C-alpha cells in the first residue's frame, strides 16, 4: 500500500513543460516531474498504455496533469494513489473552467505554445488535413475563430501565427493568460494525494 510519505510522480503532457518548469518546487514541492510527448493526445490508446504502466509502481503516488485524454483516465483516477488535475483538456486546465467554457461556446479553437510550434504536424500529418480547402472547410465549419494562448514564457510566434491564419483563412487572436489556474490545479492535485 502506498503511504503519504511515498514519492509523488507528477506526470504531465509535454504541452505544459515550460509552464510547469516556471512554477517549480514552490508549487510542486518534492514531486518528481515526468513529461510525455503531447502527440500522445493523437494516440489515446498508447497514452493509456503508458499511464497504466506507470500506475503499477506500488512505491509512489501519481499526480496527472492531463485532461480526459485517454479511454481509461477515469479508471486511473479511481485508484487511491492517483489523482488528476481538474479539467477536461489542457485549455480548460490553463484557462479555468469558466473562461474555457465561455470561449468554447463562442466557437474558439485554441493554440497553446507547444502545439503552435507543431501545428503542421498536428493538422497535416496527424489529422490528415494536407489539402488547404479541406482544412479551411473543417475549421470554418467547427469554429468561429482561432486563439493563441500566450503564457508569457516565450515570444509570441508571429510568423507561425501568420502561417496558421493563411492556412485556415482565419485570423488568430493572441490572448495573454497567466499561470494561476494551472498553479492552483497542480497544488490541488498534490494536496488531494495527501
Model description:
By secondary structure, this protein is an alpha/beta fold. Helix content is 47%, strand content 19%. Strand 3, helix 4 and strand 4 form a beta-alpha-beta unit. The radius of gyration is 17 Å and the shape is globular.
List keywords for this structure.
DUF1638; globular; 7 strands; 194 residues; 11 helices; alpha/beta; DUF1638 domain-containing protein; three-stranded parallel sheet; Rossmann fold
Helix-strand blueprint:
Blueprint lengths: L6 E7 L3 H7 L1 H4 L3 E5 L7 H12 L4 E6 L7 H5 L4 E3 L5 H6 L1 H9 L2 E4 L1 H4 L2 H8 L5 H11 L2 E6 L7 H11 L3 E5 L3 H14 L1
Parallel strand pairs: 1-2, 1-3, 3-4, 5-6, 6-7
What is the makeup of the main sheet? 4 strands, parallel
**Unreliable stretches covering 5 or more consecutive residues:** none
Return the string of H and E elements: EHHEHEHEHHEHHHEHEH
CATH topology of the largest domain, which one?
A: Rossmann fold
Radius of gyration: 17 Å
Strand arrangement within the widest β-sheet reads 2-1-3-4
In oligomeric terms, what are we looking at?
Answer: single chain
Total individual domains: 2
What is the distance, rounded to the nearest whole angstrom, between the alpha carbons of the first and last residues? 14 Å
Total helices: the number is 11
The number of E-state strands comes to: 7
Helix fraction bin: 40-55%
The proportion of strand residues reads: 15-25%
The secondary structure category is: alpha/beta
The first-level CATH class name of the largest domain: Alpha Beta
- Average pLDDT number: 93
CATH second-level architecture of the largest domain: 3-Layer(aba) Sandwich
Shape: globular
Amino acid at each position: 500500500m502506498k503511504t503519504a510519505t511515498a514519492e509523488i510522480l507528477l506526470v504531465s503532457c509535454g504541452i505544459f513543460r515550460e509552464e510547469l518548469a516556471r512554477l517549480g518546487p514552490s508549487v510542486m514541492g518534492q514531486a518528481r516531474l515526468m513529461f510525455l510527448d503531447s502527440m500522445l493526445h493523437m494516440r489515446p490508446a498508447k497514452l493509456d498504455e503508458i499511464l497504466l504502466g506507470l500506475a503499477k509502481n506500488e512505491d509512489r503516488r501519481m499526480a496527472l496533469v492531463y485532461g480526459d485524454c485517454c479511454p481509461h483516465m477515469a479508471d486511473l483516477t479511481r485508484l487511491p494513489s492517483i489523482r488528476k488535475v481538474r479539467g477536461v483538456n489542457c485549455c480548460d486546465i490553463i484557462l479555468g473552467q469558466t473562461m474555457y467554457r465561455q470561449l468554447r461556446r463562442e466557437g474558439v479553437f485554441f493554440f497553446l505554445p507547444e502545439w503552435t510550434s507543431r501545428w503542421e504536424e498536428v493538422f497535416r500529418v496527424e489529422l490528415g488535413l494536407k489539402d488547404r480547402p479541406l482544412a479551411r472547410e473543417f475549421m470554418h465549419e467547427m469554429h468561429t475563430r482561432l486563439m493563441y494562448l500566450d503564457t508569457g514564457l516565450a515570444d509570441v510566434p508571429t510568423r507561425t501565427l501568420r502561417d496558421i491564419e493563411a492556412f485556415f483563412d482565419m485570423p488568430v487572436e493572441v490572448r495573454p493568460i497567466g499561470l494561476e489556474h494551472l498553479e492552483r490545479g497542480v497544488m490541488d492535485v498534490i494536496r488531494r494525494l495527501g
